[in-house]
From TrEMBL:
Signal sequence bounds: 1-22
Biological process (GO), any one: proteolysis
Record-linked InterPro entries: Aspartic_peptidase_AS, PDZ, PDZ_sf, Peptidase_A2_cat, Peptidase_aspartic_dom_sf, Retropepsin-like_bacterial
Name of this protein: PDZ domain-containing protein
A GO MF term: aspartic-type endopeptidase activity
Residue span(s) of domain Peptidase A2: 271-307
Family matches, as Pfam families: Asp_protease_2
Organism, scientific name: Myxococcus xanthus
Domain PDZ, chain residue ranges per copy: 521-599
SMART domains: PDZ (SM00228)
Domain of life: Bacteria
UniProt keyword Signal, yes or no: yes
Length: 609
């Protein structure tokens, strides 16, 4: 069990807000140690548990192993999806929703090692790099608890909620990757003199993410076979037609020059799929899933750039791209209709990282074509610049960029993001990037909805040895979205990546970029109107008037409706056309906008952020 907390063997070196606080902590820990079993914890070496786990309407058998030397594995089989992650002192591996074997990220390993240090008492003895401090009392489940905070020299926090009288452990408040959950422990039983919780409830701010685990069998201090932690052979989900080792280049639709739509067949049905390296798993739109006859299960929380959305799971999905077939995928089923409306293009399927994991993916943006290759047969182009592309938080891949000469930071590698760059508050606030910088407001997001956020222009960013100048960036707030992360510090999108021929080789954690000189000379798109408007049946509805913009000084307001631009009506095919790019025209140009009532307004474009 992830939150099994072993009793502590000796009193630790205490670090509190004051000497008095440290003195108060010592007797509290002594009572806790006695309650947990005392000397029996000295001999605790391993924990092996079996039981059942329930989350998001899914349930299945659970089995876990952990050893005090830093070894841990946890498996849950929900039928439509099997979860498995193993961490060893040297690294680790995990299964994604479709059963592919992936490397565990360094932060995955760090989280599990923190937990093992708690489970076996090392952290509470003051070792494993841990420090302890007594916090103010906290209310939980109708009563007050003493709170002992454990930290490991990073951003994460582990708060033990203890009963003052006897030191009994009620649960833990855990903050990892800037997201807080509470692990409530119950049904405590003594096993070989050690108190162990046979009930674990993980409570979050979204009920769809909560889970409940009941232990039905438990062994302590039993040797764990080394085979338990061995990396399994990968399950091949990608295969080429007989005699082929590559799809060859497939033309794609580069919609609005910021989305890659590839022709495909999904369970035999012809469609287009949106290529998205930022999607942890492939997503099928709810309506399209019904059309395909997919059987959905569960109700889970999906976290996107705009916040949370509800998702279900469906198995047995096959996707064909030319002579390549991806088989037996487990996909998320999410209502993508609003995202499709915002993009202005149908969005039946988002093709996620399953298509990247076992193949070399070659996206030739200059020539609007993509190819998928067996890694062993692929030869990189001679001018390719190689960059690390590593597993990171939340099952995502990260690359490093530098902002205006600052030290490099990890950002999400996101081919599905049509923008240039968004920065997360854990980075931009600490760096003071909006201090004395002209900025305004915009709307951004996708799955989870749109959010109002700051927007400004960076003098430059550095990627692959190339300096890109005057880069528009969105400065995200924390919210309940991926931007809350303090491990990934931003999201790099196609407005930057599309200036290269881009090749990924996930098996070797490598991104190869071939600069496109023509694309690199092009300035980045910037809104120069201040009218943040969304399409709606032959018109644009103004949702936000950006502060300090031309529109802000011209009497525009949210709710205004535009039906024509320079006399040209907004038709059903407006999105992705040259007409739709009117707000990106050069500063100084004038645009005549016709409103729903027939009146016309002249707007002179200019830079305002």
């Amino acid at each position: 069990m992830r939150a099994l907390i072993a009793v502590l063997l000796t009193l630790p070196l205490l670090v509190g807000p004051s000497e008095a606080g440290a003195e108060a902590l010592q007797p509290l820990l002594a009572r806790h140690l006695a309650w947990r079993g005392g000397d029996a914890f000295t001999r605790l070496e391993s924990i092996h548990a079996k039981g059942k786990s329930v989350t998001g309407g899914l349930q299945g058998p659970m089995e876990s192993w952990s050893h005090r030397d830093g070894w841990a594995r946890r498996d849950v089989d929900y039928g439509v999806m099997r979860q498995s992650m193993t961490i060893t002192p040297d690294g680790g591996w995990k299964l994604n929703a479709s059963g592919q074997v992936e490397d565990a990220s360094s932060t995955d390993a760090r989280d599990v090692r923190h937990q093992v240090a708690l489970d076996f008492g090392a952290a509470l003895r003051g070792s494993a790099g841990a420090t302890l401090a007594l916090q103010p009392d906290a209310q939980r489940d109708g009563r007050a608890w003493k709170v002992v905070r454990v930290t490991f020299g990073d951003e994460d926090l582990y708060d033990l909620f203890l009963n003052e009288a006897d030191g009994a452990l009620h649960g833990l408040r855990i903050r990892e990757d800037n997201v807080t959950r509470f692990v409530r422990l119950g049904d405590w039983r003594q096993v070989q003199g050690v108190r162990i919780p046979f009930l674990e409830e993980v409570l979050t701010d979204n009920p769809d993410s909560d889970s409940r685990t009941v232990v039905e069998a438990l062994e302590l201090n039993v040797p764990i076979p080394s085979a338990v932690f061995e990396r399994p052979q990968d399950v091949r989900k990608a295969s080429f037609a007989k005699g082929h080792h590559s799809t060859g280049f497939i033309p794609f639709e580069f919609f609005d020059e910021n989305r890659v739509y590839i022709p495909a067949r999904v369970n035999g049905h012809a469609t287009q799929v949106l290529l998205d390296s930022g999607a942890e798993m492939t997503v099928v739109d709810t309506a399209y899933a019904r059309e395909l006859g997919l059987k959905t299960q569960g109700q889970l929380a999906a976290v996107g750039s705009g916040g949370h959305a509800q998702a279900q799971l469906a198995g047995g999905v096959d996707i064909t791209l030319g002579n390549l077939r991806l088989t037996g995928l487990t996909v998320a089923v999410i209502d993508l209709s609003e995202v499709a409306r915002l993009i202005g293009h149908p969005l039946p399927v988002v093709l996620g990282k399953e298509s990247f994991n076992q193949l070399v993916v070659d996206v030739d943006f200059p020539n609007r074509r993509v190819a998928f290759h067996e890694a062993s047969r692929f030869k990189a182009p001679p001018r390719a610049v190689r960059l690390p592309l590593v597993e990171s938080a939340g099952g995502q891949r990260a690359i490093h960029i530098s902002i205006e000469g600052r030290p490099p930071i990890p950002v999400l590698f996101d081919v599905g993001n049509g923008g240039a760059l968004s920065l997360f508050p854990a980075y931009w606030q600490q760096a003071g990037l909006l201090t004395e910088r002209r900025s305004s407001r915009t709307l951004s997001g996708a799955v989870g909805g749109l959010r109002e956020r700051d927007v400004a222009t960076l003098k430059d960013i550095q990627l692959a040895g190339i300096t890109l100048k005057d880069v528009p960036a969105v400065f995200d707030d924390a919210g309940k979205s991926i931007s809350a992360s303090d491990r990934l510090l931003g999201n790099l999108g196609l407005a930057v990546l599309g200036r290269f021929r881009m090749i990924t080789d996930y098996a070797t954690d490598t991104l190869m970029l071939v600069p496109d000189a023509r694309a690199l000379r092009q300035p980045f798109r910037k809104d120069r109107s201040g009218l943040i408007a969304l399409p709606a049946e032959g018109r644009l509805v103004v949702k936000l008037v950006a502060p300090g913009s031309p529109a802000a000084g011209s009497g525009w307001k949210a709710g205004d409706e535009i039906i024509a631009i320079d006399g040209k009506p907004i038709g059903p095919d407006y999105a992705g056309t040259e007409l739709a790019r009117w707000r990106y025209r050069a500063a100084g140009q004038a645009v005549v906008l016709t409103l729903k009532d027939g009146s016309k307004r002249r707007l002179t474009l200019r830079d305002y952020y």
